[in-house]
Amino acid sequence: MGNPGSDIDDGFALALALADPAVSVDLVTTVGGNADVDVCTRLTGELLERLDRTDVPVVGGASLPLRGGAGRRSGPHRAPYAATAIAEAIAAAPGEITLVAIGPLTNVATALLLDPALARDVRDVVVMGGVFLEQTNIAAMPGEYNLWSDPEAAAVVLASGAPLRFVGLDVTRQVRLSRADAALMAESERDFEAFAGRCTIGWIDHHGAQNPGDPREQDSCALHDPLAVAVVSEPGLVTWRPAYVQVETAGRVTRGTAVADLLMSAHPPEPNCRIATAVDADAFVARFRERIRSL
Fold first, then answer.
1. Over the stretch 24-72, which tens digit does the pLDDT of each residue have?
2. How far apart are CA 64 and CA 208, in angstroms?
3. Measuring CA to CA, which residue among 77, 42, 72, 79 is closest to residue 58?
């Protein structure tokens, strides 16, 4: 978030967490995904500086997924730094911390592998990831990006026994910030709101050009990660359903795809998470605009 045309999703999620009076942001970790982890770490620091919140610690994390191509184990990277920081923070305050994952799950999975007690001690894990009631309709990336980027990490998290909530692409695509909303934000006298509005217009322009066949992308953008942050303090914004979710880690065509069993058979498996199935989009966008305006 910052350069015209760059994705505004993660930046808005962090800003929304800082603006929510019911949330205390204790730690931010970064992970390689849409960008190199060093770039992610630097931009996170710049955003926190812009928001006058340099008191929030930032720890760099995994630069590569748990496994490289063709099943090869990845080379050395810095996952243990972020993973250790996550594990130590949760161990120091058992039952008090909600972990919000808005990128590939490499850091979270590594933390669980380092300290399996994290699954017991974490209050809740909210993941922006997966697509459960629809599909991406993109053959080259059949799974939602965060899970598709590191399906082995997603499998570790899903098998951990931690209390998990997944906010998937099929729901986040319903919450959108319009070009008109972004223009109003850009005209604000408040520095961050004006900055965020300009960034949003640039992202809508860029994403619309990249997706000419989707009319929604021409005049609005989805707020994927911010919705995952919002449900920490306002879980009622979405409808939750228990499910047993697995992620494909092997198939050449379907690798990274999440499959949700909605427990409707005669002998359903035990649920391992809850998934969002619907959202009050208008209420979320109104609350989002209000909170961003307060920064």
1. 999 999 999 888 899 999 999 999 999 999 999 999 999 999 985 433 3
2. 29
3. 42
Tell me how far the alpha carbon of residue 109 is from its chain's centroid.
15
Backbone phi, then psi, for 167, in 5-degree steps?
A: -110, 105
Q: Rounded to two decimals, what is the model's pTM?
A: 0.94
Torsion sign, CA atoms 172, 175, 180, 181 = negative
pLDDT in tens, 147-180: 999 999 999 999 999 999 999 999 999 999 999 9
What does DSSP assign to residue 270?
P
Distance between CA atoms of residues 78 and 266, nearest Å: 45
Q: Helices in the chain by DSSP H: which ranges? A: 9-19, 37-50, 79-92, 106-114, 118-121, 145-149, 151-158, 169-172, 179-186, 191-210, 216-219, 224-233, 281-293
Where does the chain hold its CATH 3.90.245.10 domain(s)? 9-175+223-293
User: Which residues are the active-site residues?
Assistant: 224
The three-state secondary structure class of 253 is coil
Residue where the block lists tokens 């009076």 = 21
CATH entry 3.90.245.10 includes domain 9-175+223-293: yes
Residues 6+ apart with CB under 8 A from 215: none
Cα separation, 83 vs 67, in Å, equals: 16
Name the amino acid, one letter, at 49. Answer: E
CB-count burial class (<10 Å; 0-12, 13-18, 19+) for 69: exposed
| ∠ Cα 262 265 267 (to 5°) | 110
Cβ atoms within 10 Å of 193's Cβ, excluding its own = 20
Q: Which pLDDT tens digit goes with each residue over 102-129?
A: 999 999 999 999 999 999 999 999 999 9
Query: Do 128 and 172 meet the contact criterion of CB atoms below 8 Å apart?
Result: yes
Distance CA 164, CA 147 (A): 14
